[in-house]
Amino acid sequence: MGAEVVIEGLSKSFGSQPIWRDVSLSLPPGEVSVMLGPSGTGKSVFLKSMIGLLKPDTGTCVVNGTDIVRCSEHKLYETRKLFGVLFQDGALFGSMNLYDNVAFPLREHTKKSEAEIKRIVMEKLAMTGLSGAEDKLPGEISGGMRKRAGLARALVLDPEIILCDEPDSGLDPVRTAYLSQLLIDLNAQIDATILIVTHNINVARTVPDNLGMLFRKELVMFGPREVLLTSDEPVVEQFLNGRRLGPIGMSEEKDSATMAAEQANVEAGHHDGGTEDVRGVVPQIQPTPGLPERQGERRRKDRVMQILHTLSPEAQEGIIESLSPEEQQHYGVRPHQLVGAGQHAGGGAAGSTMPLPSEHHGELPAEDVANRPGDRAAESDSGRHTDAQWWSNQ
Ligand SMILES: Nc1ncnc2c1ncn2[C@@H]1O[C@H](COP(=O)(O)OP(=O)(O)O)[C@@H](O)[C@H]1O
Ligand SMILES: [Mg+2]
């Protein structure tokens, strides 16, 4: 089972520019979580803070009893081995073929024989659909294949936690759907804790067990997917439907006069930019038939049923409807019969003491969104390669 990550009160600024503050959340072991946020809200900064590549100003990020924020260099080096990271564009060494790129962490961090390394590399290339491509250079393959090669590289040290920075960026919708399926299949196979940061709303709707959103330097919400997917919080609703109408503007938050003018335009029939208005809980991607069931999903059911009574009626409904009739019976719940405050659902979950993900409803302060379009591409291809260099290049 993957490791739990417990983040409390994390804040990060660069000089006088705050990026986000007071972020608290837990990634439950072996579950898949997505952090949404408009460009420039600090999603990449958040991932880098989780692995000690950037140092937050305050707060803690605890993995297996080690606080990544304050631990020694040696402890950080050790703890980082628990993480597999897929940086944007795969962050592969351009002069090495895929085989050597994927073998790289094994050669740097382990004393395994070349025969053993070969077995592992071929296994991870097969898991990511890259069998036969081992001799290709990163420049010779498509963006989707580079992402998968980055993922294969992230898998070779058997990580307990996998972090993915915009795995969908630069991919068409079909390739994105394949990558989403691949992440769910990997989770079923290795039961690692997974965090994906993205601004892709289809990934957010269909992939994770838990969903969060960063906006205006705050964690707006983090909790079971059903909570955000049914939320009437304006920022969350606007983002999940890709509309212009709402608090998120072209490069910053809107003032109330702009919002009123846009509302009037829409009421007069002007298109608001959203092409779809999907509300509610859409089915989650399931592992490809033949793979094991996801242990994280099974554990999550017990965990979420314990907190069912604390959730909104819409979220409760979404959760109950996602259960099979047998599971509804097991937990003692039925659709359209919600659990009131103070009551617990079902005895089946009684033994579960899994910590709950924090669900933080931030007060939205009246500051601008950090505003920088795009990301710097990770370039990790100069001179002799060491793993320390690879990390520090990200
Ligand atoms: N190393 C850095 N030094 C100074 N500012 C940075 C650094 N890295 C990121 N930033 C700033 O932090 C903000 C958030 O960036 P980023 O995490 O890349 O956003 P996102 O990934 O959500 O698009 C941006 O305003 C960016 O300019
Ligand atoms: Mg980014």
Automatic annotation (TrEMBL):
Basic and acidic residues bias locations: 269-279, 358-387
Superkingdom per UniProt: Bacteria
A Pfam entry, by short name: ABC_tran
Protein name: Phospholipid/cholesterol/gamma-HCH transport system ATP-binding protein
Record bears the keyword ATP-binding: yes
The keyword Hydrolase is annotated on this UniProt entry: no
One function term, GO molecular function aspect: ATP hydrolysis activity
Signal peptide: none
Region annotation Disordered: where it falls in the sequence: 269-300, 339-394
Annotated CDD domains: ABC_Org_Solvent_Resistant
Domain named ABC transporter: residues: 5-241
Sorted UniProt keywords: ATP-binding, Nucleotide-binding, Transport
